[in-house]
Amino acid sequence: MNKLQLLRILRKHIKLSEKRSIAYEQNKAAKVLIYIGAAFVMLYMLFIAVMMALIANSSDFPFTSSGFFFGVTPFLLTVDFLFRFISQQTPNQLVKPYSLLPIPKYACIEMFVYSSTLSPNNLIWLVITIPYAIMTTLFSAGWAAALGLIVAFQLIVTINSQWYMLARTLINQTIRWWALPVAVYAAMFSPIYIDEIETFFDLYSHLGSWFAAWNLPAYIGLIAILVAFTQINKLVQYRLTYNESAGVEDTKLKTVSEFHVFDKYGETGQYLKLEIKSIMRNKNMRKSFIFSTVFVTILSLVISFTDIYDTDTYKAFWVVYTFVLYGSIFIIKIMSAEGNYIDGLMIHKENIMHLLKAKYYLYTAMLLFPLLLMLPTVFMGKYTLLSLLAMMAFTAGPIYCLLMQMAVYNRQTIPLNTKFISKGNVENNYFQVVAELVAMFCPVIFISVMNSVFPENTSYIVLLVLGLVFIAAHQLWIRNIYQRFMKRRYVNMESFRATR
Predict the structure, then answer these.
(1) What are phi and psi of 252, to 5 degrees?
(2) Could you report the average pLDDT of every consecutive run of 10 residues in the chain (500 residues)?
(3) What SS3 class is residue 72?
(4) How far apart are CA 365 and CA 375, in angstroms?
(5) Does the reported pTM lie above 0.85?
(6) Nearest 5°: phi and psi at 254?
């Protein structure tokens, strides 16, 4: 069997695995929404291409068309890197079963890395480069220059995909590796800090002119960089995947925390201990908590000490996003982590009821953190204390009530520690997508509409009252969630066991 045949077989196995998934019907519904969203993204990218072309074609613009495009390339690559966290997974989730077959040890990982370079995700930027090249370069400089612009940028995007894979793999190991992409992109944008933005554009437009002229050494350099990243990725992916499948890990002495302060709250207090210890001890949950905390901190600092988001729409969106982030990461996948030990939870009556209460109390208490971080915006006059308290109460009330409904519908176990060789570690179902969209955008729409009709404080007073009503009634709607979960418990338990 040659490598091309192996690649085709592995891709076929991945498609069959998706169809055999218990969440296949849910995934099909989610894919419809994803395709609709992708269509809107492509239309937006086409609009960006037209606007860039109009700027490049203006007579008073100091850069050539290819120079302008490569001048904004660092911004495009940064956006590409960030959006890959949503759309691109590291290519080693199916390695373990194939490690038992008579296949060379690097073969599977090598094929997965190669397939990532041929991913359709890398072609989406053609929606910008092709219209831009036609409108600016084809008729003025000829088809060779236009083709050179498209091919060069596509090679750069492919390199960016391999760079993302390496960075994401290292970040999955420890949050400290975030320093690597931060340092790389800080160096990329350093001309702006050293001098003015014109120097930044001059530098990258001159580098880009090499590709537009079909400079052979420049293309050889890009291909060499791509090959180097591919080889590094193969080595890193193999080593980390092997260590995880073999159970190789550092052994450290740990201090056991008892959290006796929660003992007085009975069974709910015991589940509060369980939730806190799960975040502290389990790799995936701990990383999600650290990521969300760091992101909330950075976003709060940007809002507090810059004027980037000072428009009314942005102010409404980011105050919502800052408070909703913890729930959109943790509560949206409620019960999925517990799927690893769901049988033990079902032994005693109302265990799930106490678990749901414990989760609600913990993540409501965590809202104090973004509230404290956003207090400087009150002193600077960007937000009022009423708006922050209203958004905090509304998040703990209606939004958490909505997100916790997923306890009834989540049926797929997510791994606590394994990442590379785990199966079914991504769940995309219709209810999750809808719940997240509603939680993110409905409060923004409500605040914007209310502010356009009534004084600003009116909308936040309404949000505060609604939040307090739902908080006061949390015992009722949590019990309703518990009762509906128990009606579906056998179906859910079977799905949890099958997706471990």
Answers:
(1) -130, 145
(2) 68 65 53 70 86 77 72 86 70 57 68 74 86 84 83 89 86 80 84 73 77 75 89 82 59 58 83 86 81 82 69 74 84 85 81 90 91 85 86 91 88 72 47 74 80 79 92 93 90 83
(3) coil
(4) 17
(5) no
(6) -120, 145
